[in-house]
Automatic annotation (TrEMBL):
GO molecular function, one term: glutamate dehydrogenase (NAD+) activity
Protein's name in the database: Glutamate dehydrogenase
PROSITE patterns: GLFV_DEHYDROGENASE (PS00074)
Binding site for substrate: K69, K93, S351
Length: 418
């Protein structure tokens, strides 16, 4: 990702949104800077006895609308700029979802696939000890992101309990059910993406059962999203993860791929299917499909890849998969983008539902959870859509405008500007 600064990319879109709203710089300048950035070093004794020191980050971009909130990523390329951008996108996303949170994100620069389970647990607990002063159910609430999962969230909750002397499940979301997790959270991001696509279909008079799709990424977001969309009738012909790109013109067997990935450490490595072939990764974006579903990492659709895209619709499950340059190109070409900050908000809305249940001690059924999620996704879409129509802008710009209005209003009403 040389020369690509996701935070600068975020700022460019934010400035454009402010311009369309007629804001002066001083009206929203504070949103251009994260409130707090913490970098920590985490020394870990590895299983073979040697010591390694890992770098970790937690960035709280905003607390204007409530406690900071956002996931934690374990990735070898994680760095300050990435975490900063991801934290700002959380501020924007949480405002669009209209949930009472600011935005934060965390990361550890590590390849977790190279650690044993015990090393991973020690690293997670070490990280919590370092960020302990700034997290808490009313301060900053982490959750899963790339390469983190329910087990890691359970260790975070347990370490926090050890340090604080009390069990407070609302300090982290995305937990397993046995530790105060919620029915529905694991599927929430993917389900929310399905709801987004359904609303788009409704507005564009399309039948979801006639859509074809290619997917990048088959982790939590990609696999659950693909499975749920497949179950609604979408024909998914192509899926790529880090190990390869699988293609079946008659439609891949998504159920089989889902089961396979879940029993192989969320990886498709070694997967075979009659009628499916492995194609070069470079052909993923150029598939002649109706929807390109992005569910891996940021900066995938950029100046070098954007011209490959043939799909008329891009559904962003990943955060920041499209650079500003690619966005401008897609707009010119009439390729519509359903942006991350609106489309994947189901994950954090689902986390909010978990946090509410933790704080009230009253747990919902999965049907109640999904019904509320659907309502929230619909509201987020409609609120963005109203601005898009009013100002004749893209979904992304409308989404940033909506978020900016909400964050600025909260900050001004609180009145804590100096
Ligand atoms: N989890 C959540 O609730 C939310 C996540 N997101 C965003 O969605 C995206 C995916 O997150 P999540 O599903 O949780 O993460 P996971 O770690 O579960 O999955 C990431 C997936 O992307 C694949 N991948 C990584 N790099 C590439 C690449 N260069 N080309 C193709 N595939 C690649 C991984 O393959 P492999 O596993 O083989 O490395 C894996 O299949 C991220 O941008 C995240 O920030 C957004 C909202 C909520
Ligand atoms: O569930 C959450 O709190 C945040 C999930 C997340 O990291 C994201 O939406 O990008």
């Amino acid at each position: 990702m040389a020369n690509y600064n996701p935070y600068e990319n975020m700022l460019d879109v934010l400035d454009k949104a402010a311009q369309v709203l007629g804001y002066q710089k001083e009206d929203y300048e504070f949103v251009r800077y994260p409130e707090r950035e913490l970098t920590v070093s985490i020394p870990i004794r590895m299983d073979d006895g040697h010591v390694e020191v890992f770098s970790g980050y937690r960035v709280q971009h905003s607390t204007a609308r409530g406690a900071a909130k956002g996931g934690i990523r374990f990735h070898p390329q994680s760095d300050e700029n990435e975490v900063k951008a991801l934290a700002a996108w959380m501020t924007i996303k949480n405002a669009i979802g209209n949930i009472p949170y600011g935005g934060a994100k965390g990361g550890i620069r590590v390849d977790p696939h190279k650690l044993s389970a015990r090393e991973l647990e020690r690293l997670t607990r070490g990280y919590v000890r370092k960020i302990y002063p700034i997290i808490g159910p009313d301060k900053d609430v982490p959750a899963p992101d790339v390469n983190t999962n329910g087990q890691i969230m359970a260790w975070i909750a347990d370490e926090y309990a050890a340090l604080s002397g009390s069990w407070q499940p609302g300090v982290v979301t995305g937990k397993p059910l046995a530790t105060g997790g919620s029915l529905g959270r694991n599927e929430a991001t993917g389900r929310g993406l399905l709801f987004t696509l359904e609303t788009w279909c409704e507005k564009n008079h399309k039948d979801i059962r006639n859509l074809t799709m290619a997917v990048q990424g088959f982790g939590n977001v990609g696999s659950v999203g693909a499975l749920l969309m497949h179950q609604e009738g979408v024909k998914i012909t192509t899926i790529g993860d880090i190990n390869g790109t699988w293609h079946n013109p008659r439609g891949l067997d998504i159920e089989a791929m889902y089961v396979y990935a879940n029993s192989h450490g969320r990886s498709l490595k070694g997967y075979t299917e009659e009628g499916a072939e492995i194609i070069p990764d470079s052909e993923l974006f150029s598939q002649d499909v109706d929807v390109l579903f992005m569910a891996a990492l940021e900066n995938q659709l950029n100046g070098s890849t954007m011209e490959k895209v043939k799909a008329p619709l891009i559904l962003e499950g990943a955060n920041g998969p499209t650079t500003e340059e690619a966005d401008a190109y897609f707009e010119k070409k009439g390729i519509e983008v359903l942006p991350d900050v609106m489309s994947n908000v189901g994950g954090v809305v689902g986390s909010y539902f978990e946090w509410v249940q933790n704080r009230t001690g009253y747990y919902w059924t999965e049907a109640e959870y999904n019904e509320r999620l659907q309502k929230k996704m619909r509201e987020a879409y409609e609120d963005v859509y109203a601005l898009k129509e009013k100002y004749h802008v893209t979904y992304r710009l409308a989404a940033y405008m909506l978020a900016l209005q909400r964050v600025v209003e909260a900050q001004n009403t609180r009145g804590f500007l100096g």
